[in-house]
Write a structure and sequence with these properties.
single chain; alpha+beta; 3 strands; elongated
């Protein structure tokens, strides 16, 4: 009688192992698809901040910030339909960037929405 219980336990452990491995593999694959997009967004936010600070310090027009972002679009993975809105307001330079990037998972497409506004720091204003 105890042998039949142990045989069932071993089968149960195999099923649990397979389920846990499937969940771990699915999570790793989702991370593999999502992390590069999130990292590019982080780098893009840093570039936007750098560009508005530089434009403000050097008294460049707002269109200069837009030109820099468009020029470096392939590096940051910007889609062609990205909306770039540079303005100068209260002696500060601002740029707002909006776009949506699809991340395709098996059976599901996640729409990663990027909407960030970078403002130059106050002490750089002229």
């Amino acid at each position: 009688m105890s042998n039949s219980i142990r045989a069932t336990d071993r089968g149960s452990a195999n099923v649990k192992f397979v389920l846990v491995m499937a969940i771990l593999i699915a999570t790793a694959y989702a991370g593999y698809l999502y992390v590069p997009v999130a990292y590019q967004a982080y780098v893009l936010k840093d570039a936007m901040q750098h560009n508005v600070d530089q434009a403000s310090a050097m008294a460049y027009p707002p269109s200069w910030v837009q030109e820099q972002l468009v020029k470096n679009a392939p590096e940051y993975g910007l889609p062609a339909d990205a909306i770039i809105t540079p303005i100068q307001q209260d002696n500060r330079m601002e740029v707002r960037l909006q776009f949506t990037r699809p991340i395709e998972f098996p059976g599901y497409t996640y729409q990663y929405e990027f909407d960030h506004t970078a403002r130059s720091t106050k002490f750089l204003s002229q």
